[in-house]
Amino acid sequence: xxxxxxxxxxxxxxxxxxxxxxxxxxxxxxxxxxxxxxxxxxxxxxxxxxxxxxxxxxxxxxxxxxxxxxxxxxxxxxxxxxxxxxxxxxxxxxxxxxxxxxxxxxxxxxxx
Amino acid sequence: xxxxxxxxxxxxxxxxxxxxxxxxxxxxxxxxxxxxxxxxxxxxxxxxxxxxxxxxxxxxxxxxxxxxxxxxxxxxxxxxxxxxxxxxxxxxxxxxxxxxxxxxxxxxxxxxx
Lengths: 112, 113
Hints:
The complex is a heterodimer. Chain A has strands at 5-7, 10-13, 19-24, 31-38, 42-50, 53-56, 65-71, 74-79, 88-95, 102-103, 107-111.
């Protein structure tokens, strides 16, 4: 059974460009999470969804960040415009209610 | 708010040494506690968990006991291997906070021959 699938694995872009990260959760999972990992701040929760509805977006750093989950099998995290300080590894994770979180392999973003 | 504090790394050990990675937490109520492990270039994966006080989680030779009186969940292994080299994250789930986890900053473990 496939795990959480993220794309792209690596993205290098220039400041000011739009970045879209994609996630396919495990089939049947009703929670989806976006985390950001940096050396300075560790692992931060950006936003999470339950049954495709955003529940808590208090971790989204600013209006440049947006996330959507149009259906149970797909989510996007968009940064527009991107800045160098957005460089990080972005993880998507999914779970059943009160269950183990399953993480994707991450998308490493570098903004020049 | 909820928070998790882990000992800073990197922790460098020789193979077969005893491992302890300290983790303490601050939370309202009685959270569930977790240890996740991240191998190089991979996402995090669950190592073990405990859902109530005095529970002991265990997996792959690793153990951690939920200590409510000291608000701690220290990770231990009696004899580490080179293959245990990874970053270890302590985390908590607030029972009133949906299914989201609050993670510590992670502790890198390096095991040498």
